[in-house]
From TrEMBL:
Domain Aminoacyl-transfer RNA synthetases class-II family profile as annotated: residue spans: 123-423
Keywords, comma-separated and alphabetical: Aminoacyl-tRNA synthetase, ATP-binding, Cytoplasm, Ligase, Magnesium, Metal-binding, Nucleotide-binding, Protein biosynthesis
Reaction it catalyzes: tRNA(Asx) + L-aspartate + ATP = L-aspartyl-tRNA(Asx) + AMP + diphosphate
Main location: cytoplasm
Protein name: Aspartate--tRNA(Asp/Asn) ligase
Family label: Belongs to the class-II aminoacyl-tRNA synthetase family. Type 2 subfamily.
Gene this chain is encoded by: asnS
Positions annotated to bind L-aspartate: E156, R200, S349, R353
Length: 423
């Protein structure tokens, strides 16, 4: 665009005053451009530039000039300057300088934190990850659904619930669209996905937990077993990473991340095999017999990444929730439930669901659930339910792992945890 007349608007990212010449680096969502104000060429415009403060909103009109000395190899020779919005000084936190504020300060001033190019890149990357994942399912004829965020009861036994008053009746914020996804299999929808929100009232202050979670849920009918579900999860994740690597190339460069797309099939191991690897190679045994825990997942991640596999499945977890199908005679794995671990962190959980009404009722009774509380769900099994399965994938965790963040909260615009309800 050398020699073209343009108008740009954004924030004054940096200001350098060198006496008779002032450089203003203007920033918008696409990047930055340098404007050069010279006193001996336009004294009035030069004086106007002296009034600009860092993070003021400004608009500059001028001519683009090629320059290998300027950021992006071009700069702006201004013909007009307007200060649209003044920024109070001092700023609540630094945007342009390499000064790290603590996470609490940054989240308290999130609107300012998000102005930083490296933070902006995280959410541009997040947008492309979700866009690419939805694109895969749209191309494969899945129906995009929306299920309620207010529910009569929780779908995930054991996890705490957020109660709400619903016209004088007790209700809860949804932990999962699980029950509704299954009902849609009885409706003949066959293949559905949802990009939604789940709520978990777990008092956990860790680098991998939040109370309000972004989830990507999938359910499909007429499957043979959990391998059909894992195929969908594996193929969709590979597609998502491939497309994001292209769409978010600039974001990944800003973050200093080299995104590797796994080309080989994801390894699939049994729960018992996972425990054996931890014991024999790392002399580690998770405290709970029916889980792998955070450290166990991390060590398994190291084990498989050394073999060139950033993603792998662990299948056959014991301690099923009522809606999972129990192991059948001749099953290769202990149960029909699996987890996908990506770069040492559980990213998704799923499996084959129970579609036999009698077996489902037995599991509900064993778990101590009052059938009346989920009568709306059970009704859908009385009139022809096909074999089906699905999974839920944590989008916040996906962003964390792809962007190589040290805390899941870094990839959430306004995170909610036990200590944070604002902003």
């Amino acid at each position: 665009m050398d020699g073209e007349e343009v108008a740009v608007a954004g924030w004054a990212h940096e200001i350098r005053d060198l006496g008779g010449i002032t450089f203003i680096l203007l920033r918008d969502r696409e990047g930055t451009i340098q404007a050069v104000f010279k006193e001996d060429e336009n004294e009035e415009l030069f004086e106007k530039a002296q009034e600009v403060g860092r993070e003021d909103v400004i608009m500059i009109e001028g001519t683009v000039k090629e320059s290998d000395q300027a950021p992006g190899d071009r700069e702006l020779m201004p013909t007009s300057l307007e200060i649209i919005g003044d920024a109070e000084q001092p700023l609540p936190m630094e945007v342009s300088k390499d000064i790290d504020s603590d996470r609490a300060t940054r989240l308290d001033n999130r609107f300012m934190d998000l102005r930083r190019p490296e933070i902006h890149a995280i959410f541009s990357l997040r947008s492309h990850l979700i866009e690419s994942m939805e694109e895969y399912f749209d191309k494969n004829d899945y129906i995009n659904i929306q299920t309620p965020n207010i529910a009569k009861m929780g779908a995930e036994g054991g996890a705490e619930l957020f109660p709400v008053v619903y016209y004088g009746e007790e209700a809860f914020l949804s932990q999962s669209p699980q029950l509704y996804k299954q009902m849609l299999m009885a409706a003949g929808f066959d293949k559905v996905y949802e990009t939604g929100t789940a709520f978990r009232a777990e008092n956990s202050n860790t680098s991998r937990h939040v109370s309000e979670i972004s989830m990507f849920d999938v359910e499909l009918a007429f499957i043979e077993d959990q391998d059909d579900v894992m195929d969908v999860l594996e193929n969709s994740l590979r597609y998502t990473l491939e497309e994001t690597a292209k769409k978010s190339a600039d974001d990944l460069e800003e973050l200093g991340v080299e995104l590797t797309v796994p080309e080989e099939d994801f390894p699939r191991i049994s729960f018992e095999e996972a425990r054996r690897i931890l014991k024999e190679e790392y002399d580690y045994e998770p405290a709970e017999e029916d889980d792998l825990d955070t450290k166990g997942e991390k060590l398994l991640g190291e084990h498989f990444e050394e073999q060139g596999h950033p993603a792998f499945f662990v299948i056959g977890y014991p301690g099923e929730k009522f809606y999972y199908m129990e192991a059948r005679e001749g099953d290769k794995y202990g149960s029909r439930r699996f987890d996908l671990i990506y770069k040492g962190l559980e990213l998704a959980s799923g499996g084959q669901r129970e579609h036999d009404m009698d077996k489902l009722m037995a599991a509900i009774e064993e778990e101590g659930i009052d059938p009346e509380d989920i009568s709306f769900y059970l009704e859908s099994f009385k009139f022809g339910m096909p074999p089906h399965g699905g999974y839920g994938l944590g989008l916040d965790r996906l962003v964390r792992q792809v962007a190589e963040l040290d805390n899941v909260k870094e990839g959430i615009l306004f995170p909610r945890d036990p200590d944070r309800l604002t902003p």
